[in-house]
Amino acid sequence: MRALVVEDDPGIASGLSLSLRQAGYAVDVCGTLESAWTALCVEPFDAVLLDLGLPDGDGLDLLTRLRRQSDRRPGQSSLPQRDLPVLIMTARDGVSDRIFGLDEGADDYIVKPFDPNELLARLRAMLRRASGRSKPVIEYGDIVVDPATRSVERAGLPVALGGKEFALLLTLLQAKPQVLSKARLESAMYGFGEGLESNAIEVHVHHLRRKLGESLIKTVRGVGYFVPQEPPAAKPADTTGGL
């Protein structure tokens, strides 16, 4: 999962980025409205954490621009996802401020200073709503994924996954049955400037298949990877005694 932090205070941005990365998110930081809009137009994100008091304007202007998308510029081939989840984080604590932000299209609103754990919980809830889930965990056949604890079980037994393996699994499960290209998966798992080996996705897919079953992730050659809408039927128990 990839988050864009729009925050001009270097200390806050650094601390928030650290918390998000420790929680398994790929993170990019922008300190102005214009740089944030450019990032949204060229890279796919799963969520935006938006400060309001920015050097070149009010963060609500970015939110309005995102929701309405009425200002495509000459030569611009793409625009951000209109319904991209947005969490406002600001020192404006008035009830009228919160109401206005939510009515302008924000999905949630948290007042500074805040506990990083609360922000992470709100982010998880926001992403859960965006994906149409009500349960805090994701169940797929005998696999159970808990985004809050970053834990995975298969048939009731814990499965140890690396950070990037977990991020890849979560991205594919939340997108199922959509086929995601290698480039899209890389964007979800790695921020700007992060080191990335050319075969990283293939290696992570191989590890997930080995740990969670070969049938979990399907390959569309030359296109990408996907998790089927429905898990494969469980094989019946062998009652023949091996005869």
From TrEMBL:
<dbReference type="InterPro" id="IPR001867">
    <property type="entry name" value="OmpR/PhoB-type_DNA-bd"/>
</dbReference>
<dbReference type="GO" id="GO:0005829">
    <property type="term" value="C:cytosol"/>
</dbReference>
<dbReference type="GO" id="GO:0032993">
    <property type="term" value="C:protein-DNA complex"/>
</dbReference>
<dbReference type="InterPro" id="IPR036388">
    <property type="entry name" value="WH-like_DNA-bd_sf"/>
</dbReference>
<dbReference type="GO" id="GO:0000156">
    <property type="term" value="F:phosphorelay response regulator activity"/>
</dbReference>
<feature type="domain" description="OmpR/PhoB-type">
    <location>
        <begin position="135"/>
        <end position="229"/>
    </location>
</feature>
<feature type="DNA-binding region" description="OmpR/PhoB-type">
    <location>
        <begin position="135"/>
        <end position="229"/>
    </location>
</feature>
<dbReference type="GO" id="GO:0006355">
    <property type="term" value="P:regulation of DNA-templated transcription"/>
</dbReference>
<keyword id="KW-0238">DNA-binding</keyword>
<dbReference type="InterPro" id="IPR039420">
    <property type="entry name" value="WalR-like"/>
</dbReference>
<keyword id="KW-0597">Phosphoprotein</keyword>
<keyword id="KW-0805">Transcription regulation</keyword>
<dbReference type="Pfam" id="PF00486">
    <property type="entry name" value="Trans_reg_C"/>
</dbReference>
<keyword id="KW-0963">Cytoplasm</keyword>
<feature type="modified residue" description="4-aspartylphosphate">
    <location>
        <position position="51"/>
    </location>
</feature>
<protein>
    <submittedName>
        <fullName>Transcriptional regulatory protein QseB</fullName>
    </submittedName>
</protein>
<dbReference type="Pfam" id="PF00072">
    <property type="entry name" value="Response_reg"/>
</dbReference>
<dbReference type="GO" id="GO:0000976">
    <property type="term" value="F:transcription cis-regulatory region binding"/>
</dbReference>
<dbReference type="InterPro" id="IPR001789">
    <property type="entry name" value="Sig_transdc_resp-reg_receiver"/>
</dbReference>
<keyword id="KW-0902">Two-component regulatory system</keyword>
<keyword id="KW-0804">Transcription</keyword>
<dbReference type="InterPro" id="IPR011006">
    <property type="entry name" value="CheY-like_superfamily"/>
</dbReference>
<feature type="domain" description="Response regulatory">
    <location>
        <begin position="2"/>
        <end position="127"/>
    </location>
</feature>
